[in-house]
Design goal:
This protein has helices spanning about 10-15, 35-40, 65-75, 90-100, 165-175, 190-195, 210-215, 235-240, and strands spanning about 1-10, 25-30, 75-85, 105-115, 125-135, 150, 180-185, 200-205, 225-230, 250-260. With about 270 residues, it is α/β, with parallel strands linked by helices. A 10-stranded mixed sheet has the order 6-4-5-3-2-7-8-1-10-9.
Length: about 270
């Protein structure tokens, strides 16, 4: 039985509710600040309001908040664990030193080769970075794995959706069955699907209601939301000095137990 927990909250607020040293692997893809710039000059459709591509589902996560995000990710990770951060080249230069300041060792950027070009000018984009960080020291499962991961991009899916097959590589390399994989910006839920396929547990969060609806639908045995996030109010209040949650903080949490990873949709 594979445990799945999904929550709707601000990413940092949600991470603050998790126990220290409780997580075995973090894989995440924040809606980074540079996406807004690319939308403004017309080099991406991922945040444009349209039926065909993106929607108004994203609250940009500003670069200025990276220090608090990385501090919380470092806190919740157990010793000797890995952290993968999807990033464009511009954001990578900002994120790397901030994550190192939080305590992480930076190994290298992995290259996701999407196998087809996307939007842009000045050499149209075909790749994305996956920044590979480590807390302590953990051996990768397959030391022969190359640092270029060639997996076709998702077409006409959830905005910025990542292929499950790509996420499976990362989960397989850095976690074992029964361990806990966390994604504080889960979007389409692909990283959770990969975790369950590999026999891991998954806790995911996103601030967008549409993400909860979409990601929840990818777990066949998931229960619909049954209760509010009231149980976390005291813990969040104690950490933040506030006794109540803000409108943009957690609104609900639901637990789901997935009966089998077989039959898990991509």
């Amino acid at each position: 039985m594979s445990e799945v927990k999904l929550a709707r909250s601000d990413a940092v607020t949600w991470l603050r509710t998790l126990p220290t040293a409780s997580v075995d692997l973090v894989i995440t893809d924040p809606p980074y600040e540079s996406l807004e710039k690319h939308r403004a000059i017309g080099t991406t459709t991922r945040l444009k309001v349209s039926k065909a591509s993106s929607n108004a589902w994203f609250d940009i996560f500003p670069n200025a908040r990276f220090p608090e995000l990385f501090a919380e990710i470092y806190r919740v990770l157990k010793p000797n664990t890995h952290f993968y951060l999807f990033s464009d080249p511009e954001t990578a230069f900002v994120a790397k030193p901030m994550a190192e300041a939080a305590g992480f060792k930076f190994w290298k950027p992995l290259i996701w080769d999407k196998k087809s070009i996307g939007m842009g000018y000045h050499y149209r984009s075909r790749y994305e970075f996956v920044l590979f960080f480590e807390k302590g020291k953990r051996r990768l499962r397959d030391l022969a794995r190359a640092d270029v991961l060639s997996v076709p991009r998702i077409r006409n899916g959830y905005p910025t959706e990542k292929p499950v097959e790509l996420a499976e590589i990362l989960v397989r390399q850095s976690a074992t069955a029964g361990q806990l994989v966390v994604d504080p910006f889960m979007g389409s839920g692909s990283f959770g699907v990969a975790a369950i396929r590999e026999g891991c547990r998954f806790w995911g969060n996103d601030i967008a209601e549409q993400s909860l609806a979409h990601a929840g639908g990818r777990f066949p045995s998931a229960h619909p939301p049954e209760r509010t996030f009231e149980g976390a109010q005291m813990e969040i209040g104690e950490r933040s000095g506030s006794s109540t949650l803000t409108e943009t903080s957690a609104s609900y949490l639901f637990d789901a137990v997935v009966a089998s990873a077989s039959g898990m949709p991509k």
